[in-house]
Write a structure and sequence with these properties.
Protein name: Phosphoenolpyruvate synthase regulatory protein
Number of domains: 2
Shape: globular
Structural class: alpha/beta
InterPro entries: Kinase-pyrophosphorylase (IPR005177)
Oligomer: single chain
Pfam families: Kinase-PPPase (PF03618)
GO molecular function: ATP binding; protein serine/threonine kinase activity
Keywords: Kinase, Nucleotide-binding, Serine/threonine-protein kinase, Transferase
Order of helices and strands: HEHEHEHEHHEHEHEHHEH
Helix content: 40-55%
Strand content: 5-15%
């Protein structure tokens, strides 16, 4: 049993437990492990639990160092798009993020297990004390206990937050990669995932009726990566986004054709033509069937290849 548990833990550390021929078709069940720290506790716990179900081979996706509302929104949207075969194993200790995650998950119909809140509440009641709510138990990371890679990841996450949806275009020159594609094609999720590797990623939407920013063409084309997704999946993600905003009584910011398949196909054709006119751009990376880990690996490989040319 110990040997089997060791093997299962190793698979979780590799972020995919088992392989299934139906995975690409979206039929494989997937567990998203959500943590606002390194995720080591969550990895250990989920591996111990899965050992009790020997015949199961779910995919396990790690989402660690989740510290912002934007990251929560991106992950909930990602899991919602995965459908009923996805489950979130949440180990958030920050009560504000935990409440936000549960609220958004309930609104989007995302299934989840809240691991930490019941445990922290029970311990707090027993000792008549209140949990700090600080991920990892440290107020601020110290250079004495973390390495340079940690600070590179923190910097990359901050960069992604500040360069979403075409923001701060004049600072694109400091990016490691610029992700371009249609709205709701998965660029934001990919940007935050790349940040876990210390890669500073900016992203911007491309559409025919919007002027392309000059900074896009000032950038080294080897830093530009085209991101794609099947039109029907983009339409579904856009409908989910519109429904979410309506449920929150937020103002309608999208035009009537935002979810129209014909409009999305026309935008996709425009992006394809634009890529052909700029052959130095990398990609396209198709997020339709690949997990974020695989997409991130494809981007990293492409960046490494052009650097060694």
């Amino acid at each position: 049993r110990l040997e089997m548990e060791r093997e299962m833990r190793q698979k979780v550390y590799d972020e995919v437990v088992g392989e299934d021929p139906d995975a690409a078709a979206g039929l494989q069940k997937t567990i998203y492990v959500l943590s606002d720290s390194t995720g080591e506790t969550a990895q250990l716990l989920i591996s111990r639990l899965l050992v009790q179900f020997r015949s199961l081979k779910p995919a396990v996706r790690m989402r660690a160092n989740v510290r912002t509302a934007e990251q929560i929104e991106t992950i909930v949207d990602e899991v919602s798009s995965a459908g009923p075969n996805a489950l979130v194993f949440a180990t958030l200790v920050d009560p504000r993020l935990d409440d936000l995650f549960k609220e958004m998950s309930n609104q989007m119909g995302v299934k989840y297990i809240d691991v930490m809140s019941p445990l922290l509440n029970s311990i707090g009641d027993f000792f008549d004390a209140e949990a700090s709510g600080i991920p990892g138990g440290a107020v601020l990371p110290s250079k004495d206990i973390v390495d340079e890679e940690f600070f590179a990841r923190v910097e990359a996450v901050q960069y992604a937050q500040q360069h979403l949806l075409g923001l701060n275009q004049k600072d694109w020159k400091n990016a490691d990669v610029l992700l371009i594609g249609l709205s709701r094609a998965g660029k934001v999720s990919l940007a935050f995932f790349l940040a876990q590797y210390g890669i500073k990623a900016a992203c911007t939407d491309i559409r025919p009726d919007s002027r392309l920013p000059r900074e896009l063409f000032d950038l080294d084309p080897r830093k530009v990566v085209v991101v794609e997704m099947q039109t029907n999946l983009i339409a579904k993600r856009r409908r989910n986004r519109v429904d979410e905003m309506r449920s929150k009584s937020l103002p309608q910011l999208f035009d009537p054709e935002y979810t129209d398949l014909g409009r999305i196909q026309a935008d996709t054709d425009y992006l394809t033509d634009l890529h052909m006119q700029n052959p130095g751009w990398l990609g396209p990376v198709d997020l339709t069937h690949l997990a974020l880990e695989e997409c991130a690996s494809a981007v990293i490989r492409a960046l490494r290849q052009v650097r060694h040319r």
